[in-house]
Amino acid sequence: MLTLKNVKKSYTTGDFTQVALDGVSLNFRENEFVAILGPSGSGKTTCLNVIGGLDKYDSGDLIINGKSTKEFSDSEWDSYRNNSVGFIFQSYNLIGHLDIVSNVEMGMTLSGISSKIKRQKALEALERVGLKNHIHKKPNQLSGGQMQRVAIARALANDPEIILADEPTGALDTKTSVQIMELIKEISKEKLVIMVTHNPELAEDYADRIVEFRDGNIVSDSNPLKSETKKEEYSLKKTSMSFFTALKLSAMNIKTKKGRTFLTALASSIGIIGIAVILSLSNGFDKKIAETQEDTLSEYPITISRQAQEISKEAIESRREEMKKKLSGSSEKVDSDEVYLYDSSEDMITHTNNISDDYIEYIKNIDPEIVDSIGYTRIASMNLLRKVGDEIKPITFSADDKSNSNSSQHSQMSSGLASYPSSIKGDSASFIEKNYDLLEGEYPKSETDLVLIVDSDNRVDVNAMKNLGIDTTDIESIKFKDLVGMEFKLISNNDYYEKTQFNTYMPSSDYEKMYNSNDTVTLTLSGIVRIKDDVGMSLINEGIAYSDDLTELVIERAKESDIVKAQKDADYNVITRESVDEETKNNLVAHFGGDATPYAIMLYPTSFEEKDQVISYLDDYNEDKSSEDKIVYTDLSKTISDMTGGIMDGITIVLVAFAATSLVVSLIMVGIITYISVLERTKEIGILRALGARKKDITRVFNAETFIIGASSGILGISIAWLLTIPINNILYKMTDLESIAKLNPVHAVALLLINLTLTMIGGWIPSKMAARKNPVEALRSE
Ligand code: ADP
Ligand code: MG
């Protein structure tokens, strides 16, 4: 059934070539016990390894059941070893970290036999060698003879046709040797047994046939077979180890060195810990920043101003250049004795927004679900008087220092009317009610009701009080009661301004007459309010605040006044008689109340989430407009959040880069550990190969090992990082009063686990490839 035809094999080490087999030809019967005798170094083992497919012959042929093996592929050799051959070695070659029964099952494990059949066959084989009671012992708990019985059981378990034994009793005492020989003799009744021995007596006593080797040649054969017997075409079942088997094998191996594996996993998890902690910190800070932004910045309006300013692209670019120079430390100075001129105003691009009635209509039609209030600023000014005791005084609602700007009422554009935003749903008071607590009096009910806004310490600018005509000398506070109910008279332009003979206008000084005119409106300070606790920041300055309806009323009353008509027709300032250009003139008309167009519009989004929708609503308007007609808006909160977000991102990237270095270090470490493991498990590699494991299976075993290390280091790292967030949060809370900053994002955790696993697998890849490439014979010989 087995034929060697002129097989030659030599080994070359350096420039010395040793001929191990020098044209060996042999024919084996289906059932016989062949002993190969010969002095040490005569080529016996080499011959056996060639027969077993463990070593490749250089020339000649090995014919198995009539089939030449000249063209055998790797996988055919693997199957041959797995299915047709059982090896018994002098040094037993059991896998130390597996128990007896698993050792016996290994060959069947490699060929993918179901675990039930496998167990049954293994037990049968162990029973046959008389070891049924020791199946869960480890090899090192057995005597030499017992270990050899396990090896015999392993060789028999898969029911091969050929048993190859290389000096099976070489390491055993005489008594045990006899027992083992009896066992082998028994087996040879149904199989072809080829046994190498240097003990001629044993050979004489047990073997059917003795072949003697000398210097790689056969010198005698006691029972040669001339013609080779033909049998049906030979077919082999492919072997394949599942990844699960590889995993189990590695897990068993790792179990024998728990301490080392734990330390390895711990060391290689340091990178993960670093990155996870940094990510959880930045994640927490990001969240905190976002929350704070939502709390505070959501209250920042989106502003559409008649004059919108943007930093030009060139200015941004030059600032960036400057920054780069500073960072690289190469801030070159100009070498010159001249002063260079540049226009700093060119850094800012001013865009004039044409806020048309159409646009105002467009804004007013915005979805009330996304914008809850809209504020307007207009250039119109109010003419106001108040009776203080017996005296009637001109007053203003502004908080500007009057002493510095004499006649601030008449200074051209300074005193625009900035009302508080009105709710888009029409209830103008609701903005105040929503955001401010009432301290005294009542919330405004009509357009003529005013409120006094104080800050969180009930303070208000002294000038705001002075401008109301209150004598503030030597007083530190005013009772709520003295303020609530205070009345002001809104004077019409026609009463307020007198025409002179030079065709100009002048504020009248007859306050008594103005105050008692029929054409006045009485305004009342109805209440004092303060910002609510849960509102992040005050949006309106402290002082007197009024609704936009009042502004509209002022403009309605002023529109047809004499001074407005006169200013519209004149090409000079109707108060000072200075000649003016078109723009200044329009501003003057607006100042006197002749233009209802707001100077600026402020949109207050319902919440942070709706802001994007508001922005896209504004962008929609610009869609098909020329650049001149586009309406440019300012989103201050975006500018702020871009800045803060950017800072966090920058810091995070730098820190993660640092931590990533340790991840690379751990990658290298895993590579080294796997490499050491390959060296340690060389023998196991040889055994597995002898049992029919493919190269692929060996790679799998080591990949499984790195998989276990990678997965456990990842899980360990994430767990430790997660545990670390607890003390970190405690410390941060003590330092900053911010609660639970460090929060590990589950997505980050999973990503880190995968990255770590991938890197570890890469680190173990090269050593595991090396392991697979090992020559099985040499692997077996290693200790
Ligand atoms: P035996 O088993 O009869 O003692 P071997 O078959 O092991 O002899 O060896 C036959 C010859 O081949 C010896 O001279 C040995 O040194 C040489 N040899 C065997 N294996 C190798 C090898 N891997 N590399 C170099 N020489 C080898
Ligand atoms: Mg030998």
From TrEMBL:
Record bears the keyword Ion transport: no
ABC transporter domain location: 2-240
Residues in coiled coil: 306-333
Membrane topology label: Multi-pass membrane protein
Location, primary (coarse class): membrane
Keyword Metal-binding tagged: no
Residue ranges of the TM segments: 262-281, 653-679, 700-726, 746-766
Residue ranges of the region described as Disordered: 397-420
Pfam families noted in UniProt: ABC_tran, FtsX
UniProt keyword list: ATP-binding, Cell membrane, Coiled coil, Membrane, Nucleotide-binding, Transmembrane, Transmembrane helix, Transport
Biased composition (Low complexity): 404-415
Stored PROSITE patterns: ABC_TRANSPORTER_1, ABC_TRANSPORTER_2
GO cellular component: membrane protein complex; plasma membrane
GO molecular function: ATP binding; ATP hydrolysis activity; transmembrane transporter activity
Compartment list: Cell inner membrane
InterPro entries attached to this UniProt entry: AAA+_ATPase (IPR003593), ABC3_permease_C (IPR003838), ABC_transporter-like_ATP-bd (IPR003439), ABC_transporter-like_CS (IPR017871), MacB-like_ATP-bd (IPR017911), P-loop_NTPase (IPR027417)
Lineage top rank: taxon: Bacteria
PANTHER family to which the protein is assigned, alphabetical: CELL DIVISION ATP-BINDING PROTEIN FTSE, LIPOPROTEIN-RELEASING SYSTEM ATP-BINDING PROTEIN LOLD
Entry similarity comment: Belongs to the ABC transporter superfamily. Macrolide exporter (TC 3.A.1.122) family.
Protein name, as recorded: ABC transporter, ATP-binding protein
Organism, as annotated: Clostridium bornimense
